[in-house]
Write a structure and sequence with these properties.
Largest sheet: 5 strands, mixed
Oligomer: single chain
Bound molecules: zinc ion
Helix content: 25-40%
Radius of gyration: 21 Å
Distance between the termini: 34 Å
Shape: globular
Amino acid sequence: MTSDRPTALWIKDPLAIRADGAERGIVLRGGRIAELVPAGRSPATADTKIFEAGEHVVLPGLINTHHHFYQTLTRAVPAALDRELFPWLTALYPVWARLTPEALDLAMTLAMAELMLSGCTTTTDHHYVFPAGTEDGIDIEVAAAKRLGLRVLLTRGSMNLSQRDGGLPPDSVVQDEDTILADSERVVARYHESGPDAMVQIALAPCSPFSVTTSLMRSTAALAQRLGVRLHTHLAETEDENRYCQEVYHCRPLDYLDECGWLNERVWLAHGIHFNAGEIERLAVAGTAISHCPCSNQVLASGACPVCALEEAGVRVGIGVDGSASNDASNLMQEVRAAFLLQRSRYGVKVSHKDALRWATKGSAACTGRSDIGEIAVGAMADLALFKLDELRFSGSGDPLAALVLCGAYRADRVMVGGNWVVENGQIPGLDLGDLIRRHSAAARRLQA
Ligand SMILES: [Zn+2]
């Protein structure tokens, strides 16, 4: 599903580009950005093919740092509407327990397609439910990502603390610690690429303090260190979680994380809402990053991540759409706008559209532990999102970059990953979206029946 890669390609004379000194565009070669072309100049690179970008606003590809692809099958489920996190989860666990490999494949393909069409070039996924028959869930999503040409950091998630042992999930969706660790090691060995231009990476991701044992938290951290992979989990999402940790572990969630060997630069955390000032300092010192998920946090009435306080302390912050049962969309460009609005309402006009774009690119890259994505710079991967401003919503706009955020861009015209066009003219070449929607909808109806 990729087009031929030319020797060098000049993205010429963009309407606007989010890079300084690239007014005449950029030259791409070998899957990377080879040259920025300043105003009044032509490329130093010889024999470039040309892509005329006069109608396009060019961004570094957006990076999604938190998702649960399988949840695209349970959007707007009536039983889960108007509930906060714990009762919302309790309503959905029994539905998720009925996942099949076919449904998973459709859910993962659809979630990634939706992300790509919104300008996403790298995504993470936190897959933590492995009901019987879907033990190869990570294998299914690696295959789907490779078919689509999307860059991914997939996390082998886990839950092993069920209701029987004082946790929140039912027995039907948890696995035992030995099974989880063995499969974690298997998928890292099989799929994780450690090179700077990696297309598939694996991280390890126990789900939350209320669905995973302390033993599994510790053993997963040790395994990640031994294998040299990143660690991810949900933390500080709700006041319910604070109460659970106080009652069960007699400390706050961040203290618990620290006790489990998780407060370090290998870790990025989803949500990070309910931190106090001392905890924010500890995160900064540790180098632990945060994935801000504004839509999910608003739908579940969880609160608002203190993004400016985190950044001022030195904590790196990225953007995540979170699962499609609590967003309920997988549109990363819309998530940028949501982050801008939520953080501006909290911190005032010092938050600009440029901040929101930075969170979803450089900030998100930091969450993934990568320095080769998230910006338009010489040597960075040729991961780009190109938007047109030819719809009603943009008519009359002045600043093209601000218009993307303020007028509500939601669909990229073109997306490039590693020098390959994976979205052209608003379509994913080779993917029949109508057929995918029909099959995915049917799978969702069967699951929810
Ligand atoms: Zn989540």
